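Re-run with default settings, no changes from the original entry. Doing this only to confirm the output is reproducible before filing.
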Amino acid sequence: MAPLLQDTTSLEVPVSLPRARFGHANHVFRAGALFASGFAIFLVARHAMVPSDFGVYGFYRSGALGDAAARPLAFAGQSACFDCHDAVVAARHGGRHERIRCEACHGPLATHASGDSDARPKELSPRDLCLTCHLKSAGKPGAVPQIMPSDHAPEGPCTACHPPHNPKVG
């Protein structure tokens, strides 16, 4: 009958040979080859997708300047509004909204200001428009008056009490 346990004192520990020490090196080479392949694919894709004029004048495409110049103007500028709307200029004078540009609330109005079409400014919803800036939020500067509509005025338009171009309590 054979013994259940073998005597381990007679076993020799194999001497580590250089080949035995780097026996798993092929895994490292495979991972390196996979990384190199992925990097090569990235470089080819980048070369195919990045326009040739990218980076000529900084970190953008130099052709974008021509593209932007070719687009029609959408905003007329505040001076175009002031040419026709003298009463609004007078109402805004000295008010809190004096520094806010007209098109910030009324939208782009170059077609209206040019007089070439019958374009009219869009109809504004005073409550929604005012709350765009004045709804209470922790991320807004404290200099901008902020309200909670449910506490301040639960119903009705803001313009019932506050003239929009000079919003003192009216």
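The mean pLDDT is 83. Residues 78-160 form one domain.
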